[in-house]
Each structure stands twice: as C-alpha cells, then as structure tokens.
C-alpha cells in the first residue's frame, strides 16, 4: 500500500482554520506545501476544496471527499468516502498519498497515516477549526525551525509512526 501522509499546518493551540480559510499568511509554508504535494494524489474534503484559491491544484491528482451525491468539482475526482478516495489514489501508483484537510478528513485518515508533514505555527491563533491529536504514537524524524519575514516563528516537522 502507498504510504499515507497528512499535510497539516497548525497553531500551537490546535487551530487550523478560521471562517473557511487559513488564519495566517505564511508564503514559506505555501511553497513547502507545494513541494511536498506535487505529482502526488491530494485527498481533501469539500470545504478544503472550496477554500482553494486556485482549483484544481496544478500538477496533482485532486480527490474531493463529500457525502453530497450531486457535488461536482471541476478538475477533481469526487468520491463519497475516504476509503474510495484511497482506492482511487492507489490506482496512480504514487510514492505517497497526501491528505490535505480539513479536520474531519484528518481525523478519519489519522489511524491509517504513516507520516505527518506538520507546519507548527509557534503562536496561539484565533480560529474556529481545531485539530488536535495524540502525539505519543509518533516520533519526530525531522525538524526545521524558521522565522518568517513578518516575524512569525514556525517549524517544519516530520512525524513518523513509532
């Protein structure tokens, strides 16, 4: 089976979103996200799809999971379950399949994931979408600490299932 990874940006307080958007501006993370996800299947929920400024994400297989039977996402494959999304992604024989949000899809995929590509924002940020998870089954495999041009401290962290 193709390795399954979560690609996640999260503030110290667990916030990942606010009003359907990312509640911080971090161009460095956008570049990192693109490098991680390029040429791979990207599985996301409907709300994440709708929040994308450019649809579909170029250079990636876009798979949208939604229970809305008549939903259409131009340039993406729409499926009703995470299981069907994973089956569709597996047909493309990629080195890694990426789960790119949101919180509901992250929760469903977490037990199946072997890696988490985490951008940890070192601040408590106001938001309405939270994703927290037990880190005890995970070991830190890599960490790069940075400070953005705007002064925001963040880290790129790779977690692997212990």
Written account of the structure:
- With 162 residues, the chain is of the alpha/beta class.
- The chain is 20% helix and 34% strand.
- Strand 3, helix 2 (46-51) and strand 4 (61-65) form a beta-alpha-beta unit.
- 29% of the residues are buried.
Q: What's the short version?
A:
By secondary structure, the protein is α/β, with parallel strands linked by helices. Helix content is 20%, strand content 34%. It has an eight-stranded mixed β-sheet, sandwiched between helices. A two-stranded antiparallel sheet has the order 2-8.
Please write out the topology.
Elements: E1 4-11, E2 15-17, H1 27-37, E3 41-45, H2 46-51, E4 61-65, E5 77-79, H3 82-90, E6 97-99, H4 103-109, E7 115-121, E8 129-130, E9 138-147, E10 153-161
Parallel strand pairs: 1-6, 1-7, 3-4, 3-6, 4-5
Antiparallel strand pairs: 2-8, 7-10, 9-10
């Amino acid at each position: 089976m193709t390795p399954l990874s979560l690609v996640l940006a999260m503030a110290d307080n667990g916030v990942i979103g606010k009003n359907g958007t990312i509640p911080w501006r971090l161009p460095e993370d956008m570049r990192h996200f693109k490098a991680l996800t390029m040429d791979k299947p990207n599985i996301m929920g409907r709300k994440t799809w709708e929040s994308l400024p450019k649809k579909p994400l170029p250079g990636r297989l876009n798979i949208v999971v939604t229970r809305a039977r008549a939903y259409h996402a131009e340039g993406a494959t729409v499926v009703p379950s995470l299981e069907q999304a994973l089956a569709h992604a597996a047909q493309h024989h990629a080195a890694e399949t990426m789960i790119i949000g949101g919180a509901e899809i992250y929760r469903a995929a977490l037990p199946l994931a072997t890696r988490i590509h985490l951008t940890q924002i070192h601040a408590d940020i106001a938001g309405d979408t939270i994703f927290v998870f037990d880190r005890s089954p995970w070991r830190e495999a890599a960490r790069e600490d940075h400070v953005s041009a705007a002064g925001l401290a963040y880290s790129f962290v790779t977690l692997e299932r212990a």
